[in-house]
Amino acid sequence: MINKIAASVAEALAGVQDGATVLIGGFGTAGIPNELIDGLIEQGARDLTIVNNNAGNGETGLAALLQAGRVRKIICSFPRQADSQVFDGLYRSGKIELELVPQGNLAERIRAAGAGVGAFFTPTGFGTDLAKNSDGSLKETREINGRPYVLEYPIHGDVALIKAERGDRWGNLVYRKAARNFGPIMATAARHTVATVHEVVELGALDPEVIVTPGIHVRKIVKIDRVATQAGGFKKID
Amino acid sequence: MVIMSYQKRSKEALAQRVAQDIHDGAYVNLGIGQPTLVANHIPAGREVILQSENGILGMGPAPAPEDEDFDLINAGKQPVTLLPGGAYFHHADSFGMMRGGHLDICVLGAFQVSATGDLANWSTGEPGSIPAVGGAMDLAIGAKQTWVMMDLLTKKGESKVVAQCSYPLTGIGCVKRIYTDLATLACTPQGLQLIDKVDGLDHAELEKLVGLPIQH
Question: B53 catalytic, yes or no?
């Protein structure tokens, strides 16, 4: 019998290795799997490469993971924010590597990884500083039908940590509003995808016409109680 | 102190000026900051569908206090609402919507725009600053038309419309129109063209402020 429901966050994250690339969902207050990030801090894996849209806010969640010294490199589109002081400090003192990626290229590189695409040409970033490799050399470009494009490679994850709304024991997921953001593509791009849900339902209870992430992409599901926290970011549904 | 014979457009008046040019049925992305004001000035009778980069089409106004849902926020991370008929989708679909040329208009702020439509709006390139780009580069090149909305001059009085951007580029030749507090300009491969200007500002004076020729 297939049962992807894990009894605890610790069980779901037990296999995370040092040096892993971890894709973490979320945009702003929506869709951040805070309980899984806390679990990753507890679990202890280090030398991680983190892929997220941002680089942590305040002192909790991703910022706490950075503060704990577990992250070697971060791949993101928008690290600098009013409350990104933890990242700012580490970056300025040379203790963390940053790969800055335009947000759409970040999303497409993750999608490409999940879809088995070897690389793709994108117009985004052509002629800018972000069409350069980390050593300053220019990324490969090509003109196609008169338009210039930059070659971008996929971002594969060893692990993806995402937040969904409801799931079943086969791993099927639906999301809630703009908390969907990076969840569905990150789920496809990692070998070990862990999703939190607020509700576990029986097989067949999720309308197959509206399942967003089919269970094939999900390894573990952890049920988290629905509490109104800043990062949980929703009002309680009665 | 120079006495000016013209009045600058206020931020609200500028938003109203941009909104005037958004056609009925348009799919539009409004960038963070000043461009979000445009949503408040869409003329009555026009149905305009707003996109938000984090996976929303049919975005509505801010909710009443206490009605915020932090699973429903805009690109600036502020709570918003969804209009009946609106839809949610994931990030790759959202940016595919931009890159694929499905949005009619995108309105962005800028540090500098060149006469031929190069855009600089993500970094001032200051040494030691922490870079952040977000969706700026995708938005700049994705929509059918990219419009910039900004003050024409910096606080020091230098033109933000330039022959060549000195700040790091966001995109090349991507801006079609520049809406400013003093004039509206079109960017073309041949340079700037005048669309309109505030009353009392004569053409020669405008060209002097910009420091570039502007075709009538």
Answer: yes
